């Protein structure tokens, strides 16, 4: 190699966003650096107003009462031998192994109880894990790493990242890993806020609960809450234990002792029931498997009609997973061979127009599976209150309590391991649907209304529910008079300077001076408040989906567009060779949470590895070109 009297500045890589996705990608960068970087000097800048490692969602500065939605044993940020990628595997401890090993002292110093493998740990435990992983990744990186605790506000055409302090970083490559984006309120939300303010009421629009100001929810005052998922669970915790209440347990029954500072919550939603509790068991050998009916081959090419061509295959996929596990693990509860039943499923058409065919199919299922609790009917799983009308709230609340108690018993019982098979099938189905969206096989309307709304809602309801303990707490709060159930199809209106909630399934009205939309806002990059993205979209340096229904009605913005290698697509359709996009606001991005279950071959790991290797090649080539220019 020739030596020159000048010293070329290091190749510079800038990450905007310092959460788990950036940490995981840098771990892959370090793994392949020896192979691809060719000894080049690299400087890495990570820009995020929140601490690197955990980022905003997994930061240390949040209530220790908030829990993760996964068991300790189900989380890792390191690759293992299951991951199918080009770069070398460099194993590290998953969360459970970390808690039992290097994390034990760290958690003790932080005043955190070490969770067991089957526990749902506080988010602060994950924050400590991610901070430790970050330190390990930085130690392994053959690069100088500089962090900037501020926001990036501009990316210039000549690839300079401008920070809000005025600092500019000239970059050879930039990765935008921004996570979940804040967005402008919708027209409806703005109208609600204005009307509530005029009437002296409290209205809390959709948002990340840990960041929402709850001071306007007064002690002992009724509060209407619309939303029964994770955002509600966080709200429930912060307004009860977070305000000084506490639980004790006697003979297996949980009792809540109010502090007196709690409001009274009336919670409802479209379904009117809380999300299913997370499964409280594991079964050896059960894991996501390739889909049988909903395959790339079955979907073919071209734009699909979701209701007619995709939904029936999903229906069959879920039923197949359920019954395959039932017949395999619990043969004493079925009345025919699996081979016979498999043929029945293979020939079943969920869209069959003939009522007689439907009756014959369900009669055959009933004959083969005598206990209704062992059967799978997606519509009944999805809408357990459909068609039911309750004469008064007391009757409805008694019914819902029994429903929740039954869910807790079932989700803790491996005798119903068919539920676990459905959970795993949901993960496999999600992968196929994501690919179909990336390939442009779904219309804007189907993508927004069928996948992002209906399908994702069903997925979350079944697979992303709270830890079982949270539903036990919900029942205890109900017994204490702190939580009441408002019903399905909940509609809220402003009437005579108060909020009024009504459910078509439950007689009566609920009146309150406060109303909370307990859900995350729908992603829409065209409505983002992030100054960096706003500037890039306005200049055409980034392209985003603008979605329309078949009648021309706007469905809002979708996601940022990237190619199959995660490189940004400009508004003119060209590809930016040195700007990479990752995360939930990017079309085709995988593993948006940044971590996966161990031994799961998580798609985010595979994508991280591919992007890291592209970055290494790009940086090595960039430095080599600079040397050639100076040599001449």
UniProtKB/TrEMBL annotation:
What's a Pfam family in this record? NAD_binding_9
- Alphabetical list of InterPro entries matching this protein: FAD/NAD-bd_sf (IPR036188), HpyO/CreE_NAD-binding (IPR038732), L-asp_N-monooxygenase_NS-form (IPR052189)
Residue span, FAD-dependent urate hydroxylase HpyO/Asp monooxygenase CreE-like FAD/NAD(P)-binding domain: 14-180
| Residue runs in coiled coils | none
Q: Which PANTHER family match?
A: BLR0577 PROTEIN
Q: What is this protein called?
A: FAD-dependent urate hydroxylase HpyO/Asp monooxygenase CreE-like FAD/NAD(P)-binding domain-containing protein
């Amino acid at each position: 190699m020739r030596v020159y009297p000048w010293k070329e500045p290091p190749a510079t890589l800038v990450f905007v966003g310092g959460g788990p996705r950036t940490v995981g990608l840098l771990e892959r960068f370090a793994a392949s650096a020896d192979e691809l970087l060719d000894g080049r000097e690299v400087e890495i800048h990570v820009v995020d107003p929140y601490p690197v490692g955990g980022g905003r969602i997994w930061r240390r500065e949040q209530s220790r009462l908030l829990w993760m939605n996964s068991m300790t044993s189900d989380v890792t940020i390191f690759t293992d031998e299951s991951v199918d990628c080009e770069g070398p595997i460099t194993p590290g401890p998953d969360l459970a192994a970390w808690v039992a090993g290097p994390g034990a002292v760290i958690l003790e110093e932080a005043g955190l109880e070490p969770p067991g493998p089957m526990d749902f740990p506080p988010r602060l435990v994950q924050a400590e894990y991610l901070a430790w992983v970050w330190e390990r990744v930085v130690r392994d990186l053959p690069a100088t790493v500089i962090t900037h605790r501020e926001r990036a506000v501009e990316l210039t055409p000549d690839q300079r990242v401008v920070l809000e302090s005025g600092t500019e970083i000239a970059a050879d490559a930039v990765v935008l890993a921004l996570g979940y984006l804040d967005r402008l309120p919708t027209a409806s939300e703005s109208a609600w806020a204005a009307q509530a303010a005029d009437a002296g009421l409290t209205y809390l629009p959709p948002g990340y609960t840990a960041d929402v100001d709850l001071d306007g929810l007064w002690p002992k005052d009724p509060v209407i809450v619309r939303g029964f998922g994770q955002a509600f669970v966080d709200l429930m915790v912060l307004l009860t234990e977070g305000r000084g209440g506490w639980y004790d347990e006697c003979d297996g029954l949980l009792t809540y002792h109010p502090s007196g500072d709690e409001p009274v919550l009336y919670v409802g939603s479209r379904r009117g029931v809380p999300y299913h509790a997370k499964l409280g068991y594991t079964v050896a050998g059960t894991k996501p498997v390739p889909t049988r009916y909903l395959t790339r081959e079955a979907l073919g090419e071209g734009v699909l009609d979701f209701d007619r061509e995709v939904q029936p295959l999903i229906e069959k996929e879920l039923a197949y997973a359920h019954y395959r596990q039932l017949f395999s693990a619990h043969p004493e509860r079925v009345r025919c061979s699996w081979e016979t039943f498999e043929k029945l499923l293979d020939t079943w058409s969920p869209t069959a127009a003939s009522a007689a065919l439907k009756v014959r199919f369900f009669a055959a299922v009933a004959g083969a599976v005598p206990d209704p609790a062992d059967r799978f009917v997606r519509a009944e799983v999805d809408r357990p209150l459909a068609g039911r009308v309750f004469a008064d709230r007391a009757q409805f609340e008694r019914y819902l309590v029994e429903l929740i108690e039954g869910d807790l018993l079932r989700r803790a019982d491996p005798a119903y391991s068919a539920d676990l098979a459905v959970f795993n099938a949901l993960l496999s189905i999600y992968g196929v649907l994501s690919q179909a969206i990336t390939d442009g096989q779904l219309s804007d309307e189907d993508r927004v209304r069928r996948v992002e709304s209906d399908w994702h809602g069903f997925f979350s309801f079944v697979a992303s529910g709270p830890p079982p303990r949270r539903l036990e707490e919900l029942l205890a709060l109900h017994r204490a008079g702190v939580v009441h159930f408002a019903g399905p199809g909940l509609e809220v209106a402003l009437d005579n300077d108060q909020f009024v909630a009504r459910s078509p399934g439950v007689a009566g009205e609920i009146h309150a001076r406060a109303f909370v939309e307990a859900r995350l806002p729908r992603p829409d990059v065209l409505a983002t408040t992030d100054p960096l993205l706003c500037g890039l979209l306005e200049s055409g340096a980034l392209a985003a989906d603008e979605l329309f229904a078949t009648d021309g009605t706007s469905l809002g913005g979708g996601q940022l567009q990237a190619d199959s290698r995660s490189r940004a697509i400009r508004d003119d359709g060209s590809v930016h060779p040195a700007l990479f996009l990752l995360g939930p606001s990017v079309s085709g991005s995988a593993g948006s949470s940044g971590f996966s279950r161990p031994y799961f071959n998580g798609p985010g790991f595979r994508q991280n590895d591919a992007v890291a290797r592209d970055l290494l090649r790009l940086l090595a080539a960039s430095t080599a070109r600079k040397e050639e220019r100076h040599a001449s």
